[in-house]
Amino acid sequence: MRSLLDLARRLVSTRQLSHLAPAVARPALASEAWFIDRLTHDGDELVVEGWAFPDPDLAPGASDATRFDVNGQPFAAASYPMPRTDVGDLFWQRQNASQSGFRCVARGDTDALYPDGELRLTYRNPGPARKVAAQQSWFVRRPDQEPPFPDEDRRFRVIGNRDFEGFRLTGYTDFRRLEEAAKTIGGRSLDDCSAVLDWGCGCGRISRYLGERVGSRLTGCDIDADNVGWCRDHLPGRFVVTGLMPPLPFDDGEFDLVIGLSVFTHFRETLQDAWLAELARVTRPGAVLLMTVHGETALDYAHLAPLPDKLARQAVAKAGLLVGSDNNQLDGFADHRGEYVNVFHSTRYIKERWSRHFDVLDVLPGYIFTHDLVVLRKRGDPR
Fold it and tell me: How confident is the model at residue 210 (pLDDT cuts 50, 70, 90)?
């Protein structure tokens, strides 16, 4: 997980912001997430280690370990909070961030810990309840029931590192959170979907689980032909290579659920607008779309000093869509013609501009790691 944090810190280039005046002081964190650094299961002992923001009013030396549970039950043993100076350095404005560490222990064999093939780890965060309860949980797939995994080079082009455990844990957690967001915010269950599109499927980080659930009703597409070929050879569903520019090789109104993780995070405005129109074409009335963006949460994780942080936030608010830096992860594997960049969106901009094509149901900060999740619905009578 720390390698993912390192990637997030490099997202912002502040050289282009130096002409802007300082804005107001940095606000509270957009989303108070929690993260698992290590998860090990040896014999009958499961150990989970990571960090979670403690109650800002927690007294020094006090324990708050009862906030954690495993499959809805207390851990056998838990230590929290514990020192984490790295978290305190990254989130310098968050009270008690340097005491975010935890270590939790559960006991039981694989059958006991993975009922129905899934382990659920939950941290009940201080403050308001999440709009979608799944955001406060990590979901772990039973290891011996996992679908095939791509090699590390293919994984790198999707998540920017070669951390296998990070790919595995975030992949299944993101799948389950997306499933719950579609149901809770969009009113759309996977079981009721007749056609699902994983737009920008990469090497199948989410499609590996989607395909198990919906089978031939899944279509995945990506501009990385090598990764698409791997998905086609190893996962259920239909996988096709697409171009950087629309159109997609699909019929009008073909899909009733579309997932797009870390796609709109890489388009300038002209390309963004073209793809919004194309997604409107291939979705049917009432369809739900789950799209991620770099918003306030990504800036929270960028590890900027106070002045550059103020400048970056002012620039994003002013531009609505701000190009932060180039991205070379797909170099040599897709013809992106320099159009594949890192961009940041303001929530106000999304609600105004994206609503030209869809109803913007909600924007959930930090729902998918450093990404904010935008939940959209295609207008019209679904009948």
Answer: very high
